[in-house]
From TrEMBL:
SMART domains: REC (SM00448). One of its GO terms (biological process) is phosphorelay signal transduction system. The keyword 4Fe-4S does not apply. It comes from Methanocalculus chunghsingensis. This is Response regulatory domain-containing protein.
Length: 125
């Protein structure tokens, strides 16, 4: 069964490229350009994983993670992909909510390995 990955990024070119890369490596992609729309779509679309950018508007990635918790959706796996350097004190409150951090620009191979490893690990549980 094809896994569904929701990509949340306010940069439309990045969003488009990530959607195309995901399809190229065999995943179904849902691309959403802001955190509020993504939060509204999660319950209906039921993604297997979220690829989340940190630097977005109107809410950033940290606020998105806070809203996931408020909605009772914190069990949904989240991978960050960002060009931002993340300080330890920034990520500390979210460590258990994030399965991996990918640095932009993300290569096709890096994305493929990260997703393959995650889904392989979860299927073995």
């Amino acid at each position: 069964m094809t896994k569904t990955v929701m990509v949340v990024d306010d940069d439309i070119p990045n969003l488009t490229v990530m959607g195309l890369l995901l399809k190229k490596i065999g995943y179904s992609a849902i691309t959403i350009h802001n955190g509020w729309d993504a939060l509204a779509a999660i319950k209906e679309k039921k993604p297997d994983l979220i690829l989340l950018d940190l630097m977005m508007t109107p809410i950033d990635g940290w606020q998105f993670l806070d809203e996931l918790k408020k909605e009772g959706l914190s069990k949904l796996p989240v991978m960050l992909f960002t060009a931002k350097y993340i300080r330890d004190e920034e990520i500390a409150p979210y460590k258990k909510d994030i399965i991996q951090i990918l640095q932009k620009p993300v290569s096709l191979r890096e994305l493929e390995v990260a997703l393959h490893d995650f889904f392989k690990k979860t299927s073995e549980m």
